[in-house]
Amino acid sequence: MVKTIIDALEELKGVNITVMDLREIPEASSDFFVICNGTSSTHIAGLADRVQKNVWEQLGDRPVHIEGKQGRQWLLIDYFNVVVHIFDKEKREFYDVEHLWSDAKIQKI
């Protein structure tokens, strides 16, 4: 699933794509975070739509939960074991998820 999500984000030119492997962190709520930022609210919405479309078409999975569709500054797509965070640049810097989960194995794409 992580590869499918990365491919979807790359198709629409997601910025600073990062994968965080959380499997060795006992308190983590999922196995992976995939994080990127978009260049506008329209771009963020497009990235989220492409992720959902590709995951559904290729894997037959729908998200358990989606948050942030209204404001489109931070959109979260929860597939239970994989959570996708799509930020605008300022929100990504403010929340600094990579720093909060710095114990994770981090891979920049």
Task: Looking at this protein, list some descriptive labels.
109 residues; Beta Polymerase, domain 2; 30% strand; alpha+beta; globular; 6-stranded mixed sheet; 4 helices
How does the SSE layout of this entry go?
Layout: H1 2-11, E1 15-21, E2 32-38, H2 41-59, E3 65-67, E4 74-78, E5 82-88, H3 89-95, H4 97-100, E6 105-108
Parallel strand pairs: 2-5
Antiparallel strand pairs: 1-2, 1-6, 3-4, 4-5
Helix pairs in contact: 1-2
**Numbering strands along the chain, what is their spatial order in the largest sheet?**
3-4-5-2-1-6
Overall pLDDT? 93
Describe the global form.
Answer: globular
Q: For this entry, what is the oligomeric state of its chains?
A: single chain
Count of domains: 1
> Number of helix segments?
4
Portion of residues in helices? 25-40%
Alpha-carbon distance between the two ends: 15 Å
Strand content: 25-35%
Notes on the structure:
The protein is α+β, with helices and mostly antiparallel strands and 109 residues long. The protein has a single domain (2-108), classed as Beta Polymerase, domain 2. It has four helices and six strands; from the N terminus they run αββαβββααβ. It has a six-stranded mixed sheet with strand order 3-4-5-2-1-6. Strand 3 (65-67) and strand 4 form a beta hairpin. It is globular, with a radius of gyration of 13 Å.
